[in-house]
Structures are given as structure tokens and as C-alpha cells.
Design brief:
CATH superfamily: STAS domain
Helix content: 40-55%
Number of domains: 1
Number of strands: 4
Number of helices: 4
Largest sheet: 4 strands, mixed
CATH topology: Transcription Regulator spoIIAA
Strand content: 25-35%
Shape: globular
Distance between the termini: 46 Å
């Protein structure tokens, strides 16, 4: 079993969580606690970076969905970025990739065009 580590970086109204390891039923409380910690900071934008995530099961997907719902309920923005491999396939198979990731990529693209 691999440990899950979550780095937290809060700057202004933006919170970035960098997830490293495997996200499953055993490790999901680590990410849930990190999400709850940034919710206390009332960040308007929550970005979850999955660059270093090697595995994600349905429990991990559930944690992401619940986090997205809570952030959106308070009119915040939620993005999952840098997702690849097995975690990307898991999100694609559930139909959540376009909802969580593609919108983030589109937003980033629009921001770069508007600043040009």
C-alpha cells in the first residue's frame, strides 16, 4: 500500500492541493481532511493537481465529486488539473473528465487568450 500525501498552497482566494500517491478507500480521508482545511479558508477557487497521483478508485472519485459539489454550492470554482494514466481513465469512464478537467483546461486557455 502506498501512502497518500497532499500538499496545500493557499494564496489569496485560491487553494491548490497537490495529490501524491494512490487515492482509494484507505487513503481518501487524507484528501478529505485537506479539502476541509481549505474550506475553512473559504477559498473561491479550489484546484486539485493530480500530477503525482498514480491510482484512483471509486472512493477517490467520490471525494472529488463531493468537493466539487461543496465548492460550487458556495459559487466557487473547482478544477482538477494534470490528470493522466489510470486516474484519467477512471474519470473518463465515469463521464466526469469533461466536467472536472476539460472545463479547467478551457478556462486556462481562455485566461491566456484574454491576457494576450
Amino acid at each position: 500500500m502506498f501512502d497518500l500525501k497532499v500538499g496545500i498552497d493557499i494564496k489569496g482566494d485560491r487553494a491548490l492541493l497537490a495529490v501524491n500517491g494512490e487515492l482509494d478507500a484507505a487513503s481518501s480521508p487524507v484528501l478529505t481532511e485537506a479539502i476541509e482545511a481549505v474550506e475553512v479558508a473559504r477559498s473561491d477557487l479550489l484546484i486539485i493537481d493530480l500530477t503525482e497521483l498514480s491510482f484512483m478508485d471509486s472512493t477517490g472519485i467520490s471525494v472529488l465529486v463531493q468537493a466539487r459539489n461543496r465548492v460550487c454550492d458556495r459559487d466557487g470554482d473547482f478544477h482538477v488539473v494534470n490528470v493522466s494514466g489510470g486516474p484519467r481513465r477512471a474519470l473518463e469512464h465515469t463521464g466526469l473528465y469533461d466536467l472536472m478537467v476539460a472545463q479547467a483546461e478551457q478556462s486556462a486557455s481562455e485566461e491566456s487568450r484574454s491576457s494576450a
